[in-house]
């Protein structure tokens, strides 16, 4: 009897337990109104003017809007601007905002907001910093219109204001934009297509955006950052999953909808899943960079830098970095291939047959005394590390006594600021990469500058490049700009501020029920819907 | 005992002060500059120097230490360099997932380990004992992250029973909460289960050879009563000690587990902060960990008074 009672109790408990449990497979699937997205990095800062981090730029595109924006034809199009006029002497730009633009707190967007936003951006951005020397005055004309008066004609004004990548001149309310440019802003009030749900932000794990119901998109179809930003989901959740295998499993299981950047070794695994689409949504890709320290021997000698040019094989570099050729291409230009200024001028040292003998001769000519060369690599950055390992072999081929200094990225970017000799903690070579829009022209390509101690790490000194850069700013049209760009490149292959190591694309993967993914160099989450 | 507890709590102050000083010094002298990370890849040396100055990172060591220590004394752990959010707020956001993972892991470990350990001691030398000890060796040998991937592959990807990643608060429902913790706590718990099972077996073997156990058997008590009521109770002090040590080890173990299962806990907060040199977070979390260790040790010591009536403070 006792046994029967025990069995009965067990049955009741088991049935009760079973009733409380949902059926298998009914867990955590991403809902139709929510887009679950694994971004390229953790969102750490909410100020896209204060930092150049791409993840914060992407956040900026969600929350903020821009006056002008670049489209897929590299043309600057009005975004918040309804129209603009330029005076006959090319000195006064008058910009009228679209009617009904509102901040996320409901206040109207005013010209004063835009002026303050531009002023803050001009203090931080590499291109924006050229504008104070050009702009005489910015003032509001009426509730929707403001003017920019120049001291001298500057044909690139709208290109600067419509800049695609960091720092993007996002518009912010005046009270926010008045924040010191070197201090992070504390609010997330934009006028963009999404509102940031600050209360749900868990740094290192989750950032949530909700659809801005008051946003009025433009009528044009989306084209890169330009066109209509039509939001087709109620909510976007950025889920930062640092472990690639976990991210892959989550996508395979349908717990997330989109993984922005997947490592090459997981492409094949995800491609096998018919519910997952593996694609390239960045039409331009990114550019690998081998950077010399121009202040320290032996690469203070241009002959040594030229020698490296003759042995760096972009195919080897990119194969190590990106694997399948579907995801990389050679690019023997100092301007990103696929952008208007890319050209072949004087590129034989990089594009021609790899010539170890010639490189050795250049090393000898340079009088290389066999001193140790420190090549820095970041082992937590596969893109950086792959380039470093391939370059080490190339350096050995030409008789350079190269030593690989392995560290994490946080240490590398601190050490690269050192001007000291290598025996006192300095360095000779490091590697990095930029998205193609950041290397598309002389204004944006920071690594190309030759302004010595004020230049980007490595500090090349090349007065000719600086002079040509100024000419480029004054070039009246694209044809003239191209001509100057060719001259800059010719000089760059002589002075070798850095060696471009090729172009690569980082594949993306999303559930096949996602539609409307925008193909662009920056990830945009409007226009995306779940079927 | 009250005065003992008070004395122990007062003794934590110098311990934590030493930890704080040590951690601060370590970070001060460690390579890496948060200003360089904040400024981004396109920044110039001048940009970095400006941010460095703005963050007060160019202040002398003692000035920085005093500013931080004075804040801590007032209950202010500082502001995260990157997110601009108070460190205490970030820790609070992460405490629940880590606490939940730790507790469920402990439950898994204890529920698995103690019966195995008792059974192995009771049937010492038999195949049951050998199987239990084989489990212990396996538990020690397989890293938790390897086990984690195997569990994900089987139960999430193939069977689709449990989620791959994430954490759901208990406030959003008990089942979703539990569902997200089953795999991580199993992956992490088996190592500790192996450890506890071994100690339980050893301790039980020693107790089972005592005269009073023979007497209990002679009096006709059932094996269950002897094992649980007499032997296990008397073997409990070493087991409690190892469980306490296990909790301390868990704090380290959660870092890998939280990463694999994308659980937004303290472990991941620490790793992220270290990678980007977010000093206030690192200092705050380590201070918290040291406090947790000290309190945990105190609780273990106090548990002896319950488990062994001879122990008095």
CATH topology of the largest domain in chain A: D-Maltodextrin-Binding Protein, domain 2
Estimated helix fraction of chain A: 25-40%
- Could you report the average pLDDT of chain A, rounded to the nearest whole number? 92
CATH architecture of the largest domain in chain A: 3-Layer(aba) Sandwich
Order of helices and strands of chain B: HHHHHHHHHHHHH
Tell me the strand percentage band of chain A: 15-25%
How many H/I helical runs of chain A?
15
Report the principal-axis shape of chain A. Answer: globular
| Structural classification of chain A | alpha+beta
**CATH hierarchy class name of the largest domain in chain A:** Alpha Beta
- The protein's oligomeric status is heterodimer
Please tell me how large the radius of gyration of chain A is.
26 Å
Radius of gyration of chain B: 24 Å
Distance between the termini of chain A: 58 Å
- Report the β-strand fraction of chain B as a percent range: under 5%
Strand order of the largest sheet of chain A: 8-9-10-1-11-19-12
